[in-house]
Amino acid sequence: MMFAIGGNQSALNPHGPIARSIVTHTWWLLAISIAVYVVVMAALLIALARRRRESDDLPATTSRLTRNVGVAVVLTVLTLIGIAASSVVAGRGLYSPSGAGAITVDVVGHQWWWDFQYHDVTPSDVFTSPNELHIPVGVPVVIKAMSTDVIHSFWVPNLMGKRDLIPGIVTNTWIQADEPGVYRGQCAEFCGHQHAHMALNVVAEPMDEFLTWIQHQREPAAEPSTDLERRGQQVFLQSPCVTCHAIRGTDAGSHVGPELTHVASRLTLAAGTLPNARGHLAGWIANSQSIKPGNRMPPNPLAPDDLQAVLAYVRSLR
Amino acid sequence: MLTAQEGSLSVWALGIALWALSLLGVSCQREVRPFQDFSVASARTQKLVESPFQNNAYGTAEGKRLFDQFNCSGCHAHGGGGMGPALMDDKWIYGSEPTNIFESIVEGRPNGMPAWRNKIPDQQVWELVAYVQSMSGNEPIDVLPSRSDHMRSSTPENARRAQTPVQTHTP
Amino acid sequence: MNPPPLRDDTSKLRHDRPAERRETITTADEERLRRQLADTWYVPRGIIGWFSVADHKTIGRRYIITAFCFFIFAGILAGLMRLQLAVPNNHFIGPDLYNQIFTVHGTMMMFLFAVPVMEAMGIYLVPLMIGARNIAFPRLNAFSYYVYLFGGVMLVLTMLMNTAPDVGWFSYVPLAGPDHAPGKRADFWAQLITFTEVAALAVSVELVATIFKTRAPGMSLNRMPLFVWSMLVTAFMVIFAMPSIVTCSTFLLLDRLVGTHFYNPAEGGDALLWQHLFWFFGHPEVYIIFVPALGIVSSIISAFTWRPVFGYSAMVMSLVATGFIGFGLWVHHMFATGLPALGLEYFTAASIVIAIPSGIQIFCWIASIWRGRPRFHAPLLFVVGFVAIFVLGGLSGVTLASVPFDLQVHDSYYVVAHFHYVLLGGAVFPLIGGIYFWFPKITGRMMDDRMGKWNFWLLFIGFNVTFFPMHILGLDGMPRRVYTYPDNMGWNTLNLIASLGALLLVVGGAMFVYNVVRSYTWGTVASENPWGAETLEWSVSSPPPVYNFLHLPVVEGRCALWDRSADAPVVTGIRSDCREVLVTDVMDAEPICRVEYPEPSLWPFACAVVTSAFFVGSIFTPWALPISIVPLAITLIGWFWPKKADSDTRAEQPAGSMREARA
Question: What pLDDT does B7 receive?
């Protein structure tokens, strides 16, 4: 898309209560700014262009100008008070979620991917969803944000303003979508080489679909069903893949990189950088450095047959 | 015409300017970030015998990160050793050269060092090699890592005096 | 010539004392005085002489030229950034080089161009505007230039050696900390801060001393030109703000080199400590850049409307208020960090309130133009451009003061648009207008006014085409500090437009440089006061003689030249066979005593060399400190070695008498 205002990842296209109240406030700010700018520039241009008169040098003109400047200052103060008032209204509820039944999701920031952790009273029901945050429509979701390395910033413009992820601190914010859809977010605090490619997707779905998704995510990885997939699982467990990636239900248990238990069910790969399609996945596995240079995943020069097998296996992990 | 004083000063100024320009040709080895060097083709065909991250701060820092993430600290602690031998002292059982360390990691060693061949790609092994060398201070001081952002577990590497390697046969 | 400027009778708020002795000065006396002053205040020649200069005009010129060289370098870096961002998924520049480029662009513009060039205008113009022969502490002035030069050269060299800082001009920890920024890149950044902050502190101390204590008699505080007021406020802001960044960059260096834990949360440190310390400096920093530009605008408006600026007291109070309030805003850079809401509201209030003094100034300028007789030369065009751009930038700033709105556009291209509007529009446009304005005084030749007008339009249009679309890009979700962006976001067209605008800016910048170089060689020779302006620098030849004023003036009104009577008194009794300077009191500039300024000397240069070696060495080893102490002590001892004053041979003279000069 060459040019679009108010598309995906746009603050001007709100789909949640926070973003909506900020957009209303934004239009007020824009209107006030335009009005002030037009008035000031008009005054300047008239002052530049007006015909000079002898009376300009009289003290009476000076006192008239003094009065006018005074009026302008008073108007400025009133305008600023108006802006402050609009800001207060827009900020109501910004800090605490409204509505009952809020759920809590932890966001853990890494260089350069997101880990969304859904907790539960039952430890075996805890799971993580790298780079994709599912939320139920119309329900506030409290976000507890942490970072394992540097400062990141969680930002989904269609739904909410940003919140920094700061090492050593847990920061809080909340998010709510009022319509189902997929909303793209992006890291908004410079965090190193691949800050530009640290995106995420928020999937807002009706409550029943959301609960189905939760149930599904809690399950361990699907067993390979074809020979190729079985071979793929074998290759996975015997190559460097297993040193960094966990797949629940197998022996792969490392949490250095994103968990792959349900990777094939996600919309994108590499933190929003690639669509989750076979060709992209192949390129990513073989040489992620050419797509996202500096990211933490090394190139994997697998033999062609092994690569096909791993692809088949990974794409079966829905 | 310049006086003799002005003339000699001009020569000095010219010399300094030329030296400064010559720095253009020197790409600081310490600061190279070799993202693209380990492409698929080269990784498969290259059999490196020299540590590509010698004198490279980025590679050494990556090695430090991997040392914890791959749980080398599980046996070697943060250099002081435990189940595995200490890595920050001057005693080397299997040699202290980068290729020796590379082989230790890739092939494994008797008495408990696993073979990481096919579990850690070569590029990352070389990063670990660079870090292991830095643990005994055997890298240039401007390449050595400093304190980590975790709880203090040992002296920062750049504060350790370089330990001259000594061959030993006891772990 | 148009009718002469209006004398504003309200500016004479003080009745002058009648002259104590009425004598006239013959032309033969003047010739002798001229020769003697030229001898005493000589600027040394030759290579050694070049490094010994302690004259404010020479040092000021060097500062301005060096700052503009850095401006061009950083501008080229910006051009490279815009080339990379012109199309999505571009491979022109990779992430590592891009990070270095945007870091050095920001660092060089903020620390090596914007602050030094404004201080340079002060160094050159303030002594001339207040009727002094030199700036206070002239050798410190020279020292500050060399330290600044060496720091800047160090940063340029790091770019050539792949060791340029790559963590942003704000260098947040933990990204810039020892764990996540391997190598020495971030250390070079932190030490560059030390270089530039030593230079800036030195200059601001000199400016405060010069402005408070060496003004010509009769120039009470309420008769000081607005530009001098702006430099005074700026100097105080530097003195109070710089220590904060000294602290935070030193803590960073200690963390990285020595292993302290200032920013390590695991050991009781705090990543947010960096942000507080940095922005406590960082916000006043932008006012340090902006307030001198306000002074330049006042100078240009009064000169090109032939009226004193409207509302002098309000203007002065606005400058001072901006300086004070500017220290209470810093947390508006940290609205997204999760600080308590009530605290954030305070900073919202302060960030909104600071618009009021700026607004007052804009209204007073419009009133000045209203009742004046504007003459549309290039400097006035740049001032009009300043108002058009800065007001927009100020409005986007007020919107950013609101926390909910800021949480959407913080760290997006909206902020990039905002600060370029206020910095380029609010500081660089007045600066370029100021160069067009004062070029005749500094070089003795006029700049080409017709080319100046083309220059203005090229820069004005280019600027808006480049930066206006960025407001929309930010609201549309494009974050900052990204080396590329995906194809399907709807950002392509606006980014391309911004990059094309950048080309216009490059052409405009090149035209400015061309105009400067061409005018320097072939420009029309300038008279003393080609614009008919009212401040004291326009009463001396263009360029000024080394001693600035043949006779130190006695100021009779707020507009020194317009309010000057036909037989205005001058100061006599100051020795002309040594570098004697009249010290006056702070409030009313009554003469107090005479002091002797030092001769040119090589020691400041030597001290700067040793200091720079110490700074660079301490990037690599803490041993640099003990090793450098001895050479540093030697150069300082050489510098401050007391010289026998000529006071023994002095005949007793009353402290400055006033005589009438021959008309």
Answer: 53
- The answer to whether residue A8 is domain-embedded is no
Q: Is residue A53 part of a domain?
A: yes
Contacting residues of C for A195, CB less than 8 Å apart: 479, 481-482
CA distances from C513 to A165, C65, C300, C516 (A): 45, 11, 21, 5
Q: What is the pTM of this model?
A: 0.93
CA distances, C580 to each of A298, C561, C575 (Å): 71, 25, 6
> Measured between CA atoms, how close is B58 to chain C, in angstroms?
5
- Which residues, in sequence order, are bridge partners of residue A163? A154
Phi and psi at residue C457, to the nearest 5°: -65, -40
Q: Is residue B77 in some structural domain? A: yes
Task: Mention every residue, 6+ apart, whose C-beta is less than 8 A from residue C561.
Answer: C529, C533, C534, C535, C536, C538, C539
Domains contained in chain A, number: 3
- What is the arrangement of strands in the sheet containing A127-130, beginning at the earlier edge strand? A127-130, A113-118, A103-110, A141-147, A171-175
Tracing tokens 């791993």 back to the chain, one arrives at A310
C84 vs A: CB within 8 A: no
C587, C588, C557, C589: which is closest to C11 by C-alpha?
Answer: C557
Q: A217, A247, A276 — which closes off a domain?
A: A217
Q: Which of residues 14-43 of B touch A (CB under 8 A)?
A: 33, 35-36, 38-41, 43
Of A294, A299, A301, the CB nearest to B33: A294
DSSP string, C540-589: S-SSPPTTS-SSEE---SSSTTTT--TT-EEEE---TTTTEEEEE-TTT-
ipTM of this predicted complex?
A: 0.95
Residues A292 and A242 in one domain: yes
- CB distance A293 to C98 below 8 Å: no
Structure tokens at B67: 């040392």
CB contact under 8 A, B30 and C183: yes
Rounded to a whole number, what is the distance in angstroms from the first to the last CA of chain B?
A: 74
- Is residue B163 assigned to a domain? yes
Model pLDDT for residues C574-625, shown as the tens digit of each residue: 999 999 999 999 999 999 999 999 999 999 999 999 999 999 999 998 899 9
The first and second tokens of residue A93, run together, are: 């509820």
Same domain, residue pair A83 and A149 = no
C-alpha C484: how far from chain center: 33
What DSSP character marks residue A302? -
- Tally of domains within chain B: 1
Using a CB-CB cut-off of 8 Å, the residues of chain C touching B27 are: 161-162
Tokens, residue A235: 């290759």
Strand order in the sheet with A199-205: A132-136, A199-205, A181-186
CATH number reported for the structural domain that contains residue A110 in this entry: 2.60.40.420
